[in-house]
């Protein structure tokens, strides 16, 4: 990992995403179910099954149920719900919340939406009456899973970790990686490698690629 | 849906293992800018329609396109900014001469930025540490050993001094020692 490259971190767990964060851009690309509260002309090309044809000016009728990416839903939403109203995705509703509270560790958060915590936190912007329960659920789920992530990241050295991270969401994977880095640095120090001069990872990677360039 | 090409740019960078710089996607960027131009023109014409005919049900559509414009802008700016962060890292990890393979991955403007950054850094380094300047891109990790090689005593500090870690035995002028 390049040590001089400091990428813009995600802000999704806080009040607002970070504009320049690639992680947040990817997170806000995920979709959620919405309902249009007003007809939307000339956009029919995107939702062919829902919209009228040329006679209606390719309008998406009022009351259509669509799946829109988060960034679009955020942009079109207002508190009076003049353009659209937002429904909660299933995994943030009561049914799944109960599953999480039963045992948070068994759930495959990567499959359920790789940005479970980030997306869930940003969902709170839509003023659902269930917001308090959603935030509690996010918090308790994380508390339930955290211990295992921390333990496994600190006790897996030089092994294949793919089975351990398979069911973690993106934020948890970042946490796992940080733990691994700490462990690796510590082991390095214990072995006395810390004072040896080594080529930086970046330089090594470029040297490797040069070989394949020559083969092309 | 709009902004698909912009997302491709972002994904391309996100996929590159930490810190590596993929080739500058000039074609992708051009397509995003074209989409933005088309969105803007459609909105212009719809806004004029609303203003003249009072057809207010176009407003949600205009807002939809406007959100897409903002999204395209965000993706493009984040793409360019993240690349600059990677290019800056190259100066610190690779040095001031980059291998050709890397240079071909940069756009002309990025190369120019890199040269400006190199210059600013060099000017700053020259201003440190007296005559010769100080190359701060060397020795970026703190020292592992408790002692440094040589320290020359420039001022006569009669006798000895005691510090936290070590005793400074002899501080008479011009004596060299390990501290």
UniProtKB/TrEMBL annotation, chain A:
Any one of the GO BP annotations: mitotic DNA replication initiation
The job of this chain, per UniProt, is described as: Required for correct functioning of the GINS complex, a complex that plays an essential role in the initiation of DNA replication, and progression of DNA replication forks. GINS complex is a core component of CDC45-MCM-GINS (CMG) helicase, the molecular machine that unwinds template DNA during replication, and around which the replisome is built. The GINS complex plays an essential role in the initiation of DNA replication.
Q: Name one GO cellular component term.
A: GINS complex
Name where it's found. Answer: Chromosome; Nucleus
Q: What highest taxon heads this organism's lineage?
A: Eukaryota
Q: Which UniProt keywords apply?
A: Chromosome, DNA replication, Nucleus
Q: Which family does it belong to?
A: Belongs to the GINS3/PSF3 family.
Can you name the source organism?
Lynx pardinus
As given in the record, the signal peptide range reads none
Name the Pfam families for this protein. PSF3_N, Sld5
UniProt xrefs under CDD domains? GINS_A_psf3 (cd11713), GINS_B_Psf3 (cd21693)
Q: Where does the DNA replication complex GINS protein PSF3 N-terminal domain lie?
A: 21-77
PANTHER family linked to this entry? DNA REPLICATION COMPLEX GINS PROTEIN PSF3
Q: How does it assemble?
A: Component of the GINS complex which is a heterotetramer of GINS1, GINS2, GINS3 and GINS4. Forms a stable subcomplex with GINS2. GINS complex interacts with DNA primase in vitro. Component of the CMG helicase complex, a hexameric ring of related MCM2-7 subunits stabilized by CDC45 and the tetrameric GINS complex.
Q: What is this protein called?
A: DNA replication complex GINS protein PSF3
Statement: the UniProt record of this protein carries the keyword Nucleus = yes
- List, for all copies, the residue spans of the domain called GINS subunit: 97-189
Query: Is Nucleus tagged as a keyword?
Result: yes
Automatic annotation (TrEMBL), chain B:
CDD domains the record matches: GINS_A_psf1
Indicate whether Transit peptide appears among the record's keywords: no
Q: Give one Pfam hit by family name.
A: Sld5
Q: Kindly report the protein's main subcellular placement as a broad class.
A: nucleus
Q: Which Gene3D superfamilies match?
A: 1.20.58.1030
Keywords of the record, alphabetical order, are: Chromosome, DNA replication, Nucleus
* Gene Ontology biological process terms in this record: DNA strand elongation involved in mitotic DNA replication
Q: GO terms for CC?
A: GINS complex
Q: Where does the protein end up?
A: Chromosome; Nucleus
- The segment(s) forming the GINS subunit domain are 43-128
Q: Which InterPro entries match?
A: GINS_A, GINS_bundle-like_dom_sf, GINS_Psf1
Q: Which family does it belong to?
A: Belongs to the GINS1/PSF1 family.
Q: How does it assemble?
A: Component of the GINS complex which is a heterotetramer of GINS1, GINS2, GINS3 and GINS4. Forms a stable subcomplex with GINS4. GINS complex interacts with DNA primase in vitro. Component of the CMG helicase complex, a hexameric ring of related MCM2-7 subunits stabilized by CDC45 and the tetrameric GINS complex.
| Functional description taken from the UniProt entry | Required for correct functioning of the GINS complex, a complex that plays an essential role in the initiation of DNA replication, and progression of DNA replication forks. GINS complex is a core component of CDC45-MCM-GINS (CMG) helicase, the molecular machine that unwinds template DNA during replication, and around which the replisome is built.
Which PANTHER family does the protein's record reference? DNA REPLICATION COMPLEX GINS PROTEIN PSF1, PARTNER OF SLD5
Q: What is this protein called?
A: DNA replication complex GINS protein PSF1
Report the source organism. Acinonyx jubatus (Cheetah)
The taxonomy runs:
Eukaryota, Metazoa, Chordata, Craniata, Vertebrata
């Amino acid at each position: 990992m390049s040590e001089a490259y400091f990428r813009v971190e995600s802000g999704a767990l806080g009040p607002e995403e970070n504009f320049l964060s690639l992680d947040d851009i990817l997170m806000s690309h995920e979709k959620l179910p919405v309902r249009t509260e007003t007809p939307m002309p000339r956009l029919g090309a995107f939702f062919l099954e829902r919209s009228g044809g040329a006679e209606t000016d390719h309008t998406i009728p009022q009351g259509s149920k669509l799946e829109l990416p988060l960034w679009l839903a955020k942009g079109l939403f207002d508190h009076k719900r003049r353009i659209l109203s937002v429904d909660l995705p299933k995994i943030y509703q009561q049914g799944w919340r109960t599953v999480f509270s039963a045992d948070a560790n068994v759930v495959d958060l990567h499959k359920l939406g790789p940005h479970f915590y980030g997306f869930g936190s940003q969902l709170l912007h839509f003023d659902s009456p269930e917001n308090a329960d959603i935030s509690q659920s996010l918090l308790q789920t994380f508390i339930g899973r955290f211990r295992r992530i921390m333990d496994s990241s600190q006790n897996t050295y030089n092994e294949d970790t793919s089975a351990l991270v398979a069911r973690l969401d993106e934020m948890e994977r970042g946490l796992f990686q940080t733990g691994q880095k700490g462990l690796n640095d510590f082991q390095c120090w214990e072995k006395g490698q810390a004072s040896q001069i080594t080529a930086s990872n970046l330089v090594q990677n470029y040297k490797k690629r040069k070989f394949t360039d020559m083969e092309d | 849906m709009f902004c698909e090409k912009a997302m491709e740019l972002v994904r391309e960078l996100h996929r590159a293992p930490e810190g590596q710089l993929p080739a500058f996607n000039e074609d992708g960027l051009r397509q995003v800018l074209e989409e933005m131009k088309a969105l803007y023109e459609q909105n212009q014409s719809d806004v004029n329609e609303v203003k003249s005919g009072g057809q207010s049900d176009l407003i949600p559509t205009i807002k939809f396109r406007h959100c897409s414009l903002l999204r395209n802008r965000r993706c493009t700016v984040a793409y360019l900014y993240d690349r600059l962060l990677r290019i800056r890292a190259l100066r610190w990890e690779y040095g001031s001469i980059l291998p050709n393979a890397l240079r071909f991955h940069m756009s002309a403007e990025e190369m120019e930025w890199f040269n400006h950054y190199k210059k600013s850094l060099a000017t700053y380094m020259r201003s440190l540490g007296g005559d010769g300047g100080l190359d701060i891109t060397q020795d970026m990790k703190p020292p592992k050993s408790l002692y440094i090689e040589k320290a020359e005593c420039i001022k006569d500090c009669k006798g000895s001094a005691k510090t936290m870690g070590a005793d400074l035995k002899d501080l008479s002028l011009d004596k060299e020692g390990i501290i």
